[in-house]
Amino acid sequence: MQDSAEENQPAVRRLIGMVRSPRATLAAAIRRPRSFDLAVLILAVSTFCSVIFLVTPFGRLAALDQQVRQLESMGLVVTDQLYAQLRSWQRYRPLVTAIAILAGWPVLCACAAATIRAIGSRQPVQPTFAQVFSVIVHASSILALRSLVALPINFARESLGGATSLATLLPGLGDATFAARLLGAVDVFVVWWVLLLALGLGMLYHIRAIAVARWLFGAYATGAAALALTQALRGGV
To answer: Which residues, including other chains, have CB under 8 Å from residue 161's CB and lie 6 or more apart?
Structure first.
């Protein structure tokens, strides 16, 4: 009866469960793959937190500044004409962001589930696509929490991006240093998400979670180091 109660919990309770008791929540999600309502909740929270900041004047200015920095980090020169064009597009940024989240996130989750099943095709245990997808969605509950935490930080800093990165938690290294760029590429909540995903996949395939975590963290660390190195070589911030 207790297992049945856990499996029938509403989306909000399961989202909270991923913070308080992730193993039990993931076990219920594997026994009864159920992810649509939780996915809708995650999308709603993430979209709201992103759009509500971008519709404000300093949110649009922060988005513009972020675009300029990204272009400069790729070695491009932002002329007055290009800056004016970028600024004129900021009115559409909330809509574009909302569409990207609502359309892109489900596709990414589905692709990730298909990729994981393909990689694990030689394992003795072969979970269904619905089970893998459910684990990914439940682990992504932490990304909704990340949006809630980042929103007030963005408002306080009047800046976009990096609100929950290690660089924000460990300031004072200098924006132009490689260490600062590397820490800026590592997000605390993404690390948490990787840990939960490794836990869920370990339970799903009946293997040690630490083995999955090593592979996932290796891929994440490689990407973060490559991003920081690219910015350092190009002189971006």
So the answer is: 66
CA–CA dist 25, 37 (Å, integer):
15
- Residue that wins the pLDDT comparison between 7 and 67: 67
Which among 199, 203, 207 has a CA at the least distance from the CA of 123? 207
Tell me which amino acid residue 160 is: L
Given a cut of 80, whether residue 176 has pLDDT beyond it is no
Query: What residues contact residue 34 under an 8 Å CB cut-off, 6+ apart?
Result: 7, 134
Selection from 58, 33, 39 nearest residue 155 by Cα: 58
Tokens of 108: 């990414």
Six-digit token pair at 122?
A: 């030689």
Nearest to 136 by CA among 211, 186, 192, 198: 198
pTM here is: 0.85
Residue with tokens 């809509």: 95
The number of residues making up the chain comes to 237
What are the b/e assignments for 131-145, b being 16+ CB within 10 Å? bbbbbbbbbbbbbbb
Neighbours of 200 (CB within 10 A): 28
